Amino acid sequence: MAAQNNVQLTAIKESDNHNKKQVPEEDSDYSQRSQWLRAATLGATDGLVTTASLMMGVGAVQKDINAMILVGFAALFAGACSMAIGEFVSVYSQLDIELAQIKRETKIKGQNHHEQQEEEDKKEGLPNPLLAAVASAVAFSLGGIIPILAAGFISNHKVRMGVVVAAVSLGLFVFGGVGAILGKSPAARSCARVLIGGWMAMAITFGLTKLIGTAGMEM
């Protein structure tokens, strides 16, 4: 009877240990996923809002479709390069810090075979600066192309401006919702936050450019 109880207690302990080991892996998985989601969502949203805002600013003072499209592509190219360089530098700095931390821990603890394996696992899990830069540039470009495509086939100026706003709003709603769902956060709050931020950026750029353009014409 005592032997049976010992077997049961051992089984329970092993089950508890197994569950404890699984929780950090799941938390770690969501943590890593959230980093990529943050970069992808930020890049796409930034590309969408930046490109659309500049196009709206040009549209506030000019009705020429070619000017809007040209500015849109210029914003897309410049923004994608800026995002890629910024992400590369940022992630590379993070990589240097984490590598330095691993070296410090190695010197303090010394190394055996098990610790060497842990060090290799840590290094494999470190961020890749080049991959992060490419991902940010691609995400920015995917977001930035939306307002350009929305404006590219409409000749009427007022209709074109309205379609750009509608397309950007839909894009912001989708990006906010997808990021929230995959990141296990409230979708409604995320969508509202992204939409309001995008509308404010476009409205401020449109209003200030209109004001400056009008003042310049009067002078």
TrEMBL record:
Source species, domain of life: Eukaryota
Where does the sequence pass through the membrane? 65-85, 130-154, 161-182, 194-213
Query: Which PANTHER family does this one have?
Result: FE(2+)/MN(2+) TRANSPORTER PCL1
**What is stated as this protein's family in its record?**
Belongs to the CCC1 family.
Record-level GO BP terms: intracellular manganese ion homeostasis
Reactions catalysed, as given in the entry: Fe(2+)(in) = Fe(2+)(out)
- Please provide, in alphabetical order, the Gene Ontology terms of the cellular component aspect for this entry: membrane; vacuolar membrane
Topology of this chain in the membrane? Multi-pass membrane protein
Q: Does the keyword Transmembrane helix apply?
A: yes
Q: What's its job?
A: Vacuolar Fe(2+) uptake transporter.
- Specify the protein name: Vacuolar iron transporter
Q: Which GO MF term does the entry hold, naming one?
A: iron ion transmembrane transporter activity
Instruction: Indicate, by first and last residue, each region the UniProt record lists as having compositional bias (Basic and acidic residues).
Output: 13-24
Q: Which UniProt keywords apply?
A: Ion transport, Iron, Iron transport, Membrane, Transmembrane, Transmembrane helix, Transport, Vacuole
